[in-house]
Amino acid sequence: MPDLATRITAQADALPPAERRVAEVVLADPSLAAFATVAELGRRAHTSGATVVRLADRLGYGGWVGLQAAVRASLDHHLRPATERIREPDVRDVLAATAAKEADNVHRTLDAVDRAAFDRAVALLADRRRAVRVVAGSAQDGIGRLLSDDLDLLRPDVVRVGGSPVTVSKQLAHTVAEDVLVAIDLRRYERWVLDATAATLAAGGLVIAITDSRLSPLARRADAAFVVTAEGAGPFDSHVGTLALANALTTGVATRLRRPATDRLDRVEAAWRTAATLAES
């Protein structure tokens, strides 16, 4: 039987705006759906309890009680981590609080990865017949840059897309059906990232999305989509889980391209030594 997230994803394009807000709340905080009333969940999603019930019916749960029972069952194996988190040091111990939060971000991000989608994404990124382009919102730009640089060391024809609208349009102008776009962005999504994704899809290209929700506009039409956990110990989103996922994708590509990637790295290393570009100490 498909789980709640799978059912929501399957219905994503058909959800009215109010039901979409409820679905986003449920995906972002399953514990709320497990223990809140219909009215409480409706208020959190800025809609009515009736909308919550309609979503539950649409997803095939026969009403709110069925949906809530399914969410509670899926949360059973998370009860121990919750009891551990309540015993974490006070936020006054910033280092300890940050260590606990970032470890949780990494584990939750990687635990949520669908293995089939991951294998599909790695296969696409390792296919040297396909051009790879990487776009990332400004907050994720460092991770996008790192991912594109690492992939470029392993295989040819990798481009980090960015710059002015003229530059972005030029970089995407020759996209063909075999090409792959990695799109990285969290809510609130930058318009140019969405536009670059739409342009790739319109040209018949494939999209790998790294984002914060299965209902993200990046995820809904992606060939492979990954949801990251980005809760910071302070006021800003964490990017540690996103970085861990990017590193996992790079490691998967390196494993698939062991021989040609080794040759490529050897040539780059030789060029660095010849040019004396790096200091050993």
Give me a quick take on this structure:
The protein is 57% helix and 8% strand. The protein has helices spanning 4-11, 17-28, 30-35, 38-44, 49-58, 64-75, 79-85, 94-111, 115-126, 141-154, 165-172, 191-202, 240-256, 258-275; strands at residues 132-136, 158-160, 180-184, 206-211, 224-227.
CATH superfamily of the largest domain: Glucose-6-phosphate isomerase like protein, domain 1
Mean pLDDT: 88
Estimated helix fraction: 55-70%
Question: What is the percentage of strand-forming residues?
Answer: 5-15%
- What characterizes the major β-sheet? 5 strands, parallel
Task: List unreliable stretches of 5+ residues.
Answer: 77-88
Q: Describe the global form.
A: globular
The total tally of domains equals: 2
At CATH level 3, the topology of the largest domain is Rossmann fold
Task: Describe what you observe in this structure.
The chain has two domains: 4-77, Arc Repressor Mutant, subunit A (Orthogonal Bundle), CATH 1.10.10.10; 110-270, Rossmann fold. The protein is globular, with a radius of gyration of 21 Å. The chain has a five-stranded parallel β-sheet with strand order 2-1-3-4-5, sandwiched between helices. Helix 12 links the parallel strand 3 and strand 4 (206-211). By secondary structure, it is of the alpha/beta class. Helix 8 crosses helix 13, helix 9 crosses helix 13 (240-256) and helix 11 (165-172) runs parallel beside helix 12. It is 57% helix and 8% strand. The model is unreliable at 77-88 (pLDDT under 50). The protein has 14 helices and five strands.
